[in-house]
Amino acid sequence: MKKSYISNNVIRRLPRYLRKLDELQKEGIERISSGELGNQMGLTPSQIRQDFSCFGEFGQQGYGYNVRALHREIATILGLRKKFSVILVGVGNIGHALIENFSFRQFGFRFLGAFEIRKDLVGTSIAGYTVMDAADQDAFIKDNSVDIAILSVPRPSAQRVADKLIGSGIKAIWNFTDVELDARGSGVIIENIHFADSLMTLSYMLSVEGEEQ
Amino acid sequence: MKKSYISNNVIRRLPRYLRKLDELQKEGIERISSGELGNQMGLTPSQIRQDFSCFGEFGQQGYGYNVRALHREIATILGLRKKFSVILVGVGNIGHALIENFSFRQFGFRFLGAFEIRKDLVGTSIAGYTVMDAADQDAFIKDNSVDIAILSVPRPSAQRVADKLIGSGIKAIWNFTDVELDARGSGVIIENIHFADSLMTLSYMLSVEGEEQ
Questions:
Q1: In chain A, which residue ranges form alpha helices assigned H by DSSP?
Q2: CA torsion A6→A9→A10→A14, rounded to 10°?
Q3: Quick one: DSSP state of residue A26?
Q4: Are A183 and A166 within 8 A, CB to CB?
Q5: From its phi and psi, is residue B128 left (phi > 0), alpha (psi between -120 and 50) or beta?
Q6: A93 touching chain B per CB within 8 A
Q7: Cβ separation of A79 and B171 shorter than 8 Å?
Q8: How does pLDDT run across A28-75, given as a tens digit for each residue?
Q9: What is the mean pLDDT of residues A171-195?
Q10: Å from A38 to nearest chain B CA?
Q11: B153/chain A closest Cα distance in angstroms
C-alpha cells in the first residue's frame, strides 16, 4: 500500500466512512458519487474527494466510487485486516457491556477473554467467556502476544493496572477509566474514551441552538 | 458573548482544553503560555492560538493565558453554565455505569433520574436514584422540560424509543445504542457514542507503528 501522511482529522473520519460503506454494501449499492456520499453524511463532495485522495485513487470522474473497493481499502488502512488480539481487564458494568454487545469480530479484532481481580467474579461466565484471574494476566499476555488491553477497572487502580499491562508487553490500551494514563517512554499507544467530551459537544450544539431561536 | 463561527474541529477540541485547564487549576497554576500548553497537550502553539482566537482574546503576548478566565469562557461556550437537565432511558450495563460513575454535576448537568421498561428493575435504586417506570417518561419530560435524554436501550428498540422521546419534546439525545438514529425534521440534536470508531483509530495507530518498526 502506498504510504503517505494522513492527518489525524482524516483518520478520525475513516471509521465513519467505513460504517457508511458497510450500510451501502448491505443495501446492495455498488457505486456512489462524492456528491451523494456527502449528502448522506453531511460533508461536502470536495471534502470527501480530498479525504480519499490522501490514500490513492478510488473514484473515476463521473462514475463515482466503487463501494466495495473503497471499503476494503479503508479497512486495510485502519489495520482491521491484521486481526489484532484484545483482552478486557476489569469486568464491571462497562466491561460487561463490551463483552456482551461489542462486535469485536465484525470490526476485525480477536477477543481472547477477560480478567478480573475480584475473586467472586473469577470463573463466572459472560457471553460465553469465563472470567480469568488477574493473577494469570501477565503470563497470558506474554504467551498470546496480546496486542490490545481494554482498561475498565475502577479509577483509583487505573494507572497501577496500566503500568502492569505495559510491563507485560501490551502494545496498546483502550482506556475507559477516564483517567489520563501516563505511558511516557513505553511506546504503548493509549486511546481514551471520554464520555464527557461527547456530552459537552452535545451541550454546545444545544446551547447554540437555543440562542439562535 | 461575542458570537462568531466556530468550526466543528475546534468545538471537538474544547472539552480536551477544559479538562486540561481543570487539571492546571487543581495544580494551582494561574497562567500558561501557548508553548507550554501545547507541549502538555501535543499541539503546536500556533494551533492553540488559532483555536482560542475564534472566541476572543485570552492571552497577552509574553504573559500567557489566564487559566481561570480561559476555563470559564470555554465552559460558557460549551453551554455548561446553562445547567441542562438530563434523564437516562434504559438501565442496562451502560446505563448503570453512567449513573454510578459519570459526574454530571461536575460538568454542569442536572441529572434528574432514570427510566426503564422492565418491571423488575422499576423501583430499584442505583446510586441513590430510584428507577422510574418508562410509562411515566412522557409526562416527566413534559413536566420537567427535560433537555437531554441518554439513550441506552437495546439496539432493536432504539429508534422506537427515540421517536417517543422526540414526541415528548426532548431537545437532544445522547445516543449509546450504536444505531444511526433518524431524527430528520424534528430539530432534535443527536450525539452518538461510537465505541467502534475509537477502537478503529487505535487499530490504525497500532498498524502504522508496526510497519514503521
A1: 8-26, 34-41, 45-53, 67-77, 93-101, 137-144, 158-168, 195-212
A2: 130
A3: H
A4: yes
A5: left
A6: yes
A7: no
A8: 999 999 889 988 888 888 888 888 887 666 666 667 889 999 999 999
A9: 92
A10: 16
A11: 12
Contact B78 A207 (CB under 8 A): yes
Give this prediction's pTM: 0.84
Question: Which of B17, B26, B175, B203 to probe by mutation at the A interface, max A CB count within 10 Å?
Answer: B203
Whether residue A114 has pLDDT greater than 60: yes
ipTM: 0.89
Helix (H) or strand (E) holding A114: strand A110-116
Query: What is the C-alpha to C-alpha distance for residues A11 and B105, in angstroms, rounded to an integer?
Result: 33
For chain B, how are helix, strand and coil distributed in percent, rounded to 5?
45, 15, 35
Which residues does chain B have within 8 Å of residue A187's beta carbon, measured at their own beta carbons? 209
Instruction: Kindly indicate the confidence band of residue B13, based on its pLDDT and cuts at 50, 70 and 90.
Output: confident
Average pLDDT over residues B178-201: 91
Cβ–Cβ gap A195/B108 under 8 Å: no
Output the DSSP codes for B146-188: --EEEE-S-GGGHHHHHHHHHHHT--EEEE-S-S----TTT--
| Residue range A1-21, pLDDT digits in tens | 444 567 777 888 899 899 899
Reported for B93-96, long-range contacts at CB under 8 A and 24+ positions apart, including other chains, are: B93/A93, B93/A94, B93/A96, B93/A97, B93/A100, B93/A101, B94/A93, B94/A94, B94/A97, B94/B152, B94/B176, B95/B150, B95/B152, B96/A93, B96/B126
From chain A, pick out residues whose CB is under 8 angstroms from the CB of B189.
Answer: 202, 205-206, 209
B2 band by pLDDT with thresholds 50, 70 and 90: very low
Contact of A71 with chain B, judged by CB distance below 8 Å, is answered with: no
Q: Which residues in chain A are closer than 8 Å to B194, comparing Cβ atoms?
A: 15-16, 19
Rounded to an integer, the average pLDDT of B23-50 is 89
B58 vs B75: CA distance, rounded Å: 14
Of all residues in chain A, the one with the smallest CA distance to B78 is A204
The predicted pLDDT at position A2 comes to 44
- Contact list in B for residue A198 (CB cut-off 8 A) is 174, 191-193
Smallest CA–CA distance, residue B37 to chain A, in Å, is 16
Q: Do residues B92 and B154 lie in contact, with contact meaning Cβ atoms separated by under 8 Å? A: yes
∠ Cα B29 B35 B36 (to 5°) = 35
